[in-house]
Amino acid sequence: MYQSFKGGLGGIALAKHGRSRAINAENPHGEKGKGGMAASHLGPSRKGSPCLNDIEPGETVTLAEMEGPGEINHIWITVDNKTTDADCFVLRDLVIRMYWDDEEYPSVESPLGDFFCCGFGRECAVNSVPMAVVPNRGFNCYFPMPFKKKAKITLENQHANKIPAFFYQVDYCLYDELPEDITYFHAQWRRERLTEKQKDYTILDGVKGKGHYVGTYIALTTLERYWWGEGEVKFYIDGDDEYPTICGTGTEDYFGGSWSFAKQVDGKTVEQNYNTPYLGYPYYSAHDELIHNFYHNDDCPPMRGFYRWHIQDPICFDEDLRVTIQQIGVGYRGLFERQDDVASVAYWYQTHPHAPFAPLMSKEDRWPR
To answer: Which region ranges are annotated with the description Disordered (predicted)?
Structure first.
């Protein structure tokens, strides 16, 4: 019997009928009774293989591969964010992919940091129901990821240097069977380094099949002055053409905030960061916080990271889905069309097969400004 996480404590006392397993560097195949067998200088079964070592540039490693039916229920990862002062975008250079049931094309493809709501090659604290990053690049994902036949998670190193140490664990349960109408987890990263005026940024399109949209992460680099957050998020559902079925009231509103996230501090407007179970604004910076050359200042274009989980309010579709967001600002002269740098991750569940994703842009084009 399959029982997935229902989002609360109400069912915690019910008997569970899965067989718990975990894959990490200590037990790379998740085999029963074979965890922690590697030896260290402390002796047998004493932390002999805590991580993957020296992942070479251009190498793709398989983090986890398992036969179903089953469901991944937790992923934990940590890795350093730089290898040298010059090579400091590890979180954008590493690419995570996930495949379900022997599919040829990944259902999940994203730079590692952005998948966990940490864009710009920088970590930040995230405290939400499906994603948590604590306290220093401890990346956690709790999205349920069911699979009927097989699951595979890979990591590609597109960084200039080898990754000395990559720590991870994939926790999952095996079941005798899954419901026939199960849907599969998907996530896709996109970016426009310069959006077009009067053309909405596309968060997701090309989705065909039945499913439900469950979340958005946006990494916004503002390139123009004045307030940036008036653009509306639109959901084009099941054949919508010129106009969407669901259209919000503004970017700050979609992420649950209001009044420019503003607070007055010493006569100056300061935006307020926040984390909640289903929506948040965990990151703001206009400075290079990791690498500072003493011959240069550390100014950067303002960077903002947001998440919004449609867990209590999934966006359901039967045939197709497209999601966009406008680039509209406001100043003393009123509303105006903007051009900014927008990256995003869309998260959704759908039936298979799914359409292949567009090719991921090069690592250099993924780097933050």
So the answer is: 24-51
